From TrEMBL:
Descriptive protein name: YbhB/YbcL family Raf kinase inhibitor-like protein
Keyword match Metal-binding: no
Listed InterPro entries: PEBP, PEBP-like_sf, YbhB_YbcL/LppC-like
NCBIfam families: YbhB/YbcL family Raf kinase inhibitor-like protein
Keyword Chloroplast: no
Taxon lineage: Bacteria, Pseudomonadati, Pseudomonadota, Gammaproteobacteria, Lysobacterales
CDD domains in the cross-refs: PEBP_bact_arch
Organism: Stenotrophomonas nematodicola
Molecular function as annotated in GO: protein kinase inhibitor activity
Source superkingdom: Bacteria
UniProt entry keywords in alphabetical sequence: Protein kinase inhibitor
Length: 203
């Protein structure tokens, strides 16, 4: 299976229109265009995940003007998108069709292919302690790395072809729930990644 995009070129910087944040604050936050081909026989649905594996693990170093987030600081995953039960007939998602703009406290009913279900992304946990921002962040919310991070962040879009039409998932669900539910049901996987940074020294 192959994953391609007119919005993202493999290994290259992602345009700010597909990010949740830019140098001025919240950005256009449009989902990128994605298309998948060479789908295996027996595919009954798809799942889609977008994960940044370069998120700092020491929150006190994030967003500070008096220090930077060291490049060698241990990193963790941050989920930007989790979608399941994408019908087998769907082989592409148009740019901006699932997200247009950043919604404070999260999108309550994000758009997506008919029949698909959108899960929580990790902005849910990130903003949990902020009463002005806390909420359930469903669907796609794009890159917004710390401006003081010495590392360029990578964003991996992964599409999975599954042999089941629906996954057994809670409401709401997370990327971890998707991973558990699709275990033993993956026929093929395709990945595409782009990069993003708000550090002027790295841009």
């Amino acid at each position: 299976m192959r994953l391609s995009s007119t919005s993202i070129h493999a290994g290259q910087p992602i345009a700010a229109e597909f990010a949740a944040g830019d140098a001025n604050g919240f950005a256009a936050n449009r989902n990128p265009q994605l298309a998948w081909s060479e789908v295996p026989e027996g595919t009954r649905s798809f799942a889609l995940l977008c994960v940044d594996p370069d998120v700092p693990t020491v929150p006190d170093t994030v967003g500070r003007h008096d220090c930077s987030v060291p490049r060698d600081q241990p990193r963790a995953d941050f989920v930007h998108w989790a979608m399941a039960d994408i019908p087998a007939s769907v082989h592409a998602i148009a740019a901006g069709s699932c997200s247009e703009g950043f919604t404070v406290k999260g999108k309550t009913a994000p758009a997506g292919p008919a029949g698909a279900r959108q899960g929580l992304n990790d902005f849910t946990g990130w903003f949990a302690g902020n009463p002005d921002m806390a909420g359930q962040y469903l669907g796609y919310d794009g890159p917004y790395p710390p401006f003081n991070d010495e590392r360029v962040h990578r964003y991996f879009f992964r599409v999975f072809a599954l042999d089941v039409a629906q996954l057994d998932l809670p409401t709401p669900f997370t990327a971890a729930d998707v991973h558990r539910a699709m275990h033993g049901h993956v026929l093929a996987e395709a990945t595409l990644h782009g990069t993003y940074t708000l550090n002027p020294a790295l841009a």
